Amino acid sequence: MKADGALARAGIVPPGPAALGEERFPDGAAFRIEIPSVESPAVLAAVIEEAKAQQIVVNRVSQGSGAMLLRESELAELAVLGAAAGIEVSLFVGPREGFDIGAHARTPDGSAHFGQLRGARGLAYAVEDVVRAVEAGIRSFLIADLGLLTLLVDMQRAGELPAEVVWKISVMMAPSNPATARLLEQLGASTLNVPSDVTVEQLAELRRSTSLPLDLYVESPDSLGGVVRGNELGDLVAAGAPLYAKFGLRNSRGLYPAGAHLVADACAIAREKVHRAAVALEWLARLRPELTQSGPGAPGLGIPQVNHGRKEDDVS
Asked: Is CATH 3.20.20.70 the classification given to domain 20-307?
């Protein structure tokens, strides 16, 4: 960095770049870009358009309201858009305790349970939510409940769900220590969303504990701490690779559960997230140009499968 000389003259030891690990994605890349809170086909279309305008690659989008709030035609449209752009489309599973009739998850002390499922009926609805979206072509889901993860992995191993479906551990269940990260890998998770406020050193510890890709909010919404770390992207990737760098947006309104009443805000917020990612990529190119990003449709992404496995295709 240009600051190193000035720091040294002031008697301050320059921090130096984060050590670069050896783990990579299957294509050899160190990182991928994710845009969260992409709640509908209209928002995904805005992300694709803005990424083209900013001349960057978005590898994955994720959604927070839940597949349960989208019509089957909307799920299929998301699959078509994602498949055409080579983008993984990851949908939250519903219902969740925070949307349930119980009040516990909506209290300050119970908010940590917001993404969990209540009772056998909640588990059954959540599994059906996944199956319904898989039939529409979706191949990636955000999981925030340990029991649900074990059921879905069992179904996948039994051939009841496609082998290529990705189980993305949600930030609502973010592992903040190596032992928990290792446990989630053993239970069958595909990627792990770690807390947005981890230090570079803690991120490196988590990386040493698991071979799974890590997901990290480089910028997070206010509800997750409101960190803004785009200038650190190079060090974060070096410490956490293979890493999904997620770009939320500080100082923006909440969107869950989203719908037509919020679509204009959701599109505007999504476009600014893509812009924030473009800025961070410039920082990475300036400070850690040796770190490479996956291209569209890279191996390991849960790219939607258009018209594959849908009910109407099962007619013999």
From this structure: yes
